[in-house]
Amino acid sequence: PPIGLESHRIEDDQILASSMLRHGLGAQRGRLNMQAGTNEDDFFDGAWCAEDDSRAHWLEVDTRRITMFTGVITQGRDSQIHDDFVTSFYVGFSNDSQHWVMYSNGYEEMMFYGNVDKDTPVLSEFPEPVVARYIRIYPQRWNGSLCLRLEVLGCPLSAVSSYYTQQNEVTSTDNLDFRHHSYKDMRQLMKVVNEECPTITRIYNIGKSSRGLKIYAMEVSDNPGEHETGEPEFRYTAGLHGNEALGRELLLLLMQFLCKEYQDGNPRVRGLVTDTRIHLIPSLNPDGYELAHEAVRGQQVEQWGRMWSAGMGGYGAVGWDGKAVGCSPPFTAHHHPGLAAGLQAGHLRGVREGDGTWSMETRAVMAWMDKNPFVLGANLQGGEKLVSFPFDTARPSPPTPAGAPHPLDYEDERPELQETPDHAVFRWLAISYASAHLTMTETFRGGCHAPDVTDAMGIVQGAKWHPQAGSMNDFSYLHTNCLELSIYLGCDKFPHESELQQEWENNKESLLTFMEQIHRGIKGVVTDQQGEPIANATIVVGGINHNVRTASGGDYWRILNPGEYRVSARAEGYNPSVKTCHVLYDIGATQCNFVLSRSNWKRIREIMAMNGNRPIRRVVPGQPMTPREHLRLRMRLRHRMRLREQMRLRRLNATMDTSSPTAPPSTTALPFPFSSTAYTPWSQEPPTAGTWEMDTETEVVAELVTETE
Fold first, then answer.
1. Distances in Å between the alpha carbon of 519 and those of 35, 117, 390, 557?
2. For 215-241, how does the pLDDT look when each residue is reduced to its tens digit (9 = 90+)?
3. Residue 411: other Cβ atoms inside 10 A
4. Which CATH architecture has domain 12-156?
5. pTM for this one?
6. Superfamily the domain 522-600 falls into
């Protein structure tokens, strides 16, 4: 297994070098898959580079324990303009860093052959393992400048020399399956879990991948297969990128853990399963994972570290006005138009060949999101160790008006960061995961590829750290009720099997704590006066410009931080209802139900339509009318009297000749005060032309008498 250069288990002070070209190309940058900054002149670059072309330079790693070394993986410099890599090197070993022994083939120092390009990792295995504490790489030939990225393979044979590192080493006591699972193994494991806990688990698939592999999901609930009114739905997804295997294995371990602990009577797990409907998808991109898994299992490290996704498309293009382009079924940013981030190809990359359509996986995930009323979720990724929350897209900087002074060259023209209306809630959710993680908040070591960007908290807004369009987080927030975050589990995307126990212990408490946050805020049911649930009602929280809608059973959930909120429920055809709801600090959502009464707006709209949707003037009693208004009123009344007479004659003719057509209802304006109480409720059938005419004629005659008096 790797000793941990890529995963940062080997700390910066354990890596030394004979020299460095500059600080941003020091020995600490010589880790496998280390990435350079977005700009070529970035202070931190993507490799260790020596100060000159001498063959006396070396890169050294101190494991701080006796280790049996079995090989090394080398890689060139991560750069868009430089083509630097080592083509051959010697290897030396030591127990005291003073006396070195070169690896030999029995006759002479053995030359190892490295890279042929700057990106592809190359594995060099030692014919015979070597036991030592220190290892050095002595480059002999290279292309361009002397630059190197490295991972060392070996097995520890003694206890670690550092007390602090030893304290962080945890061995899991859970009896789980700690290994990497292929697609077939994953499916078999899910089947075993389902057979062990058939009353609380269900296996289903949300669709197929581009290569025909089913995208499997595991539901964990006390009533699997159905949505229970009042029970929120949670989701964990992993495997957006094919080479990010840790999230996949953590979700498979979580399935086993929930099943075993539920059977053992763990009250925390039993409460979570009983009160929450949990959905787990370990692999959203099974095609990409199979490619990476085969490469790693066959020790073919060529390109697996750079695999992203096979067939995964973006979440569509949604502009800043919040209107979806080409969505089927259509999604609209109805929560707060104007804040919709440009959802194009983001984490689910790879729009299909030239036709601009989404991949099968993306369409399946979108349909799955639309079908289930998710409240909270997270997608597990790799390559960093932090929690990222929306918005992931930064609003483009406004164009400079004509005639305005152009910004100075040294001014940084950065896009505008746009915070969500639920920014405080997202920060709390992110902190709940990061603070429960065993190492995520240890930011003094810096990030995986650059200095810490989380302000020593382990959390960051996506647009501030790595702006991108089309992330699942933005799509979920703008088009569904679900609050979703991205959890980056570590620097090593595909850790060795021997590290899975440690990673499970690092994340176990975080995974459970984050799920429990779904029961924070308010919840309730929206019904009418007869007790019937009202689906698709809108829940509005005062001061937060982000609304949620009720599910088919009229139930809703709204995650909120502790405090007092003015909450209203609105629905088509009903009068709105407003309440004050209190959210406490303890886990457990506050019940906040709403009963809505029917409104007369449907009847009013019918009358407005009969009037040609023109405004109906309201005559205020006691207010004097101008002569011009009197004249207009008389003309309207005379015109209406003529219409009424025509209708009366037509009805008279209709009684004698049933084939005569009836007159359409009047579409002229009403010159009198309108009262909705004079008509039948809106839920009954609309009045016929005859009844409408008789009622109106009676009122017009009454007004004529009043005016004459």
1. 39, 52, 21, 9
2. 999 999 999 999 999 999 999 999 888
3. 8
4. Sandwich (2.60)
5. 0.74
6. Carboxypeptidase-like, regulatory domain (2.60.40.1120)
